[in-house]
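Feature request, filed as a ticket because there's no other form

It would be nice if the structure record came with a short human-readable summary line next to the tokens. Right now we just get the raw output. Example of a typical job, pasted below so the devs can see what we mean:
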Amino acid sequence: MTWSVPAAIRAVRATIVIPSLFAVTFKVLGNEQMTVFAVFGGFGALVMTSFGGSRSDKAVAHLGLAVAGTVMIVIGTLVSGSTWLAATVTLPVAFAAFFIGSAGPTAASGVTAALLAYVLPVASAGSAGVLPSRLEGWWLAQAAATLAVLALSPASPGDRLRARAAALASALAHQLDMAIAGQASDADAQVSAQAKEELRNGFTATPYRPIGLASADQGLAGVIHLLDWCAALIGEVIDRHVDLRTAARQDRDLLAQSAVALRQTAALLGGQADGTDIEPLWRARQASARHLHEFSGDPTATAVVADQAFHAQTIAVAAVAAVGDALIAAGLATPDEVATQRQRWLSGQDPGDVQEVVRSVPVRRLRPDARTAAIIATDASLRSVWFRSSARGAIALAAAVAVAKIIDVQHAFWVVLGTLSVLRTSATATGSTALRALTGTVVGFAIGAVLMLAIGTDPTVLWAVYPLAVLVAAYTPGTAPFAAGQAAFTVTIIVLFNVIVPAGWRVGLVRVEDVAIGCAVSLIVGVLFWPRGASSVVGDNLGDAFRAGADYLTGAVQWALGSRRKRPDKADAAVTAGQRLDDAMRGYLTEQGSKRLAKADLWGLAMAATRLRLTAHSLASLPGKSVPPSEADERRTYATLEGQAAQLAAFYDDVAVEVGRPGRAAQMTLVVPPQAGLDGTAETSAARGYNAEALWVSHHLRLLSSHSADLKVLAERLASVRRRPWWR
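Raw output as currently delivered:
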């Protein structure tokens, strides 16, 4: 068991509230139905739930949980009289409860507590006549829990995520400044790498997105991905030992302004700024472009200047995009306002009133907008780990309800709770969790039996022991092994039910039997439905991300070079695939059990998909060439670049097949495409003639293809893993 301040605060709140609810409803009001729903409602709201955000956010979230629980209790009570009706209704109710977790951390955090409100009545005897008592107990628990949470609240995970993003932005700004001054060091690179790793870990540490669907939340997600991209771009410059001290003054100024933009991003995320100023960055970009246009010299010097200008321009575009998303994350601008200014800036037009647009927007909380339905719809697919997990969970709970009622166990809801506790995304993970759950329950039964034999069923002694049992049970989740948490909860249950109806150690034996049944149901469902769990969805979604990114890249290159008249329309498909991949990775990294693919390899594959999408996005952000090439050399240059883009797209399509579902295609050998980009003569000619489109596309394709050999190795590793049987 490890020490945790949030866990300690959670335990203190539960120890104060839950025994108090028990005392009021059982001793003062004498209502057993109210007691059960008040005590378990308190556990759900205080132990199984952890809402983030400000105090007002938490108050709204707890109100939502109270309302959702009310609906669950009513439905569960009304259908509990019929076994088959209860099992049938459980399917859509449980699926909806699980699936709504895809909406963000607030919804996901409340899923288990809301399902608890359904499990208790649907698996227990009771008619509509007991509804008032059950609802009174539930609402009493929610009111007391909300007050306790508002009075004692640690810092929210969302705040820590913003702080980590701000720390990475600051570290990258410092690293860039040092590189400009020719003082780049391994220590600076290490600080940036550590900050990036901490941000990644914070973003993937939970089985749900640590951000919601509001515009501000989506802005934060955008900042995280863009900062990761900035880190890769800055690292590319330093790792290639590009001496920025020899770069043109205009390019150094542009990089310096990019560092300023990164610091503005950090300030916005930290709540230390109420606006930003990107006009100096825009001016610096224009100066860098003019210098490249006017530069003349020998071919070698021209190629070097073009290379340095490319890196400066690419980092600047990523930095200004991060500022825009940081404005959204800070609630200072809407996505439409930022998109308008970003497009004007990227297209080379004068930003004009960018200051007035940004600063005229009052500081406000940006609520979920019309995009919410579209974001949720992203997960309405068998490719989505949320959809599969929700379906598996719903089937398992429905089966548990049916089994518990058919065999008529004494406490049927313990069977369903056991199923809910151990079901994971894969059969192997569910099996290992079920074993730990049973082990913990048996240990808890043994401790409880010894306790009952030692102190008997004397109410005074049990009342004295109960708060201590609650304290331990509330502290262990997340700080101790899963089995320890099950043991602590079992002891708490034994004490609780012995206070209500003294039965000694037999209460614990009944719980062991019921949890064993619930674990068996979970394991069977886990084997029958998607036994590979999140690992198979990761491969499927990686394939989708590479295919969508390849399509996007092809269209973006054609747009940038003028052979396509309409701006690429594949961005939405690429973003959707990226969101599903993000969820699948999160489910894989947080599921119980050993991992067949190393985290570093998985990150390498995901970053390759992200790099592909952002490269296409960067090219698609260009204004597009309106006049077709007239010179023969220029036409050959454009044809070469489009051919290289097609080769890269074909390679990524092959990668998609390689990491996809085994058996869908014959085993293939991935062939790394030749290094893309213009050769020295063609690049020099393009630079001397200031063919900006050709230079831009050439460098992007070169940077993208430089990672293809590493991607081949990673894809083959994942393919090897996917060909193994799931039980091995």
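Something like this underneath would help us a lot:
The chain has three domains: 5-154+374-528, 157-212+215-359, 534-722.
Residues 346-371 have pLDDT under 50 and may be disordered.
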